[in-house]
């Protein structure tokens, strides 16, 4: 049991730019019944951190409304969804043998307790996250990774990016031998999609900026296309028989341009809107070709369990770009927003 009473944390008290991240000394949270207390070793950054801080998610009634991942945020809020660390203490009803184990926290808040539950909240948005020395989490969402050869930084890179990627691949039903198109390929989710799709036996065509093509190819893509050139033409040349599954975090105009490039029965899976959240397309491309457009928000508990199994075997190895101390969280978020790096940025409390 930890005897520390206070801890350092980086939190937001309102929506805004990086300047709203503030350092604070706050009480160490006490694990409640069914919870564990994790001493944070590493917390990875995600676009969700930026958009939650900015309040950029909107809501169904008002797309311009300031909102966290799934609604208004209770301020102050400690950010950070992606946590690896060691269990420091357990609450009532939790096996004490977990203390000292290396763990990864599933950051999702689910709508039910089943293996196919949907995420309806996120650590760092709807509850306090890992931009701190300690964080609490439900014991059933804490996965023992003591036997994994991955480092704490690599483990922290897994939950949101790789969880989102595996959720997309599972919902898109990507199979061995199929052709997958990956957009935004140099980002955290994009690199995860490449690695997991390759592990499935798929042929991977990735889309990236020219400056990052070699890094994306090194991550495992079979072909890498320059997003600044005639993208539809490049995709047709790379996949003349069509794409089986598009794994898309860009959306916008790409969705309309890309649907005709699917094979019969193809699936276009959307899990982001880096290119804009407004999209219009010809619905005939759906019903005449038995195509599907599938929304994918993160992962289910079953997906996350599959991801942890991959990580224990080191079948995937996240790329970590840089690590910074917790107090430089605002600087790290600014660097994330510039999108000049390849791989994950990680904070060390």
End-to-end separation in angstroms reads 19 Å
Helix content: 10-25%
Quaternary state of this entry equals single chain
Radius of gyration: 20 Å
Strand content: 25-35%
What does this protein look like?
The protein folds into two domains: 6-160 and 300-348, Medium-chain alcohol dehydrogenases, catalytic domain (Quinone Oxidoreductase, Chain A, domain 1), CATH 3.90.180; 173-295, NAD(P)-binding Rossmann-like Domain (Rossmann fold), CATH 3.40.50. Helix 3 (158-171) packs across helix 4 (188-199) and helix 3 packs across helix 9 (301-312). The relative contact order is 0.16. It has helices spanning 47-54, 152-156, 158-171, 188-199, 213-218, 231-238, 253-258, 284-287, 301-312, 329-338; strands at 6-12, 21-27, 35-44, 77-78, 82-90, 102-105, 108-110, 119-122, 134-138, 142-144, 179-182, 203-208, 223-226, 243-248, 262-270, 292-295, 320-325, 344-348. It is α/β, with parallel strands linked by helices and 349 residues long. Strand 17, helix 10 and strand 18 (344-348) form a beta-alpha-beta unit. It is globular and about 65 Å long. The chain is built from ten helices and 18 strands.
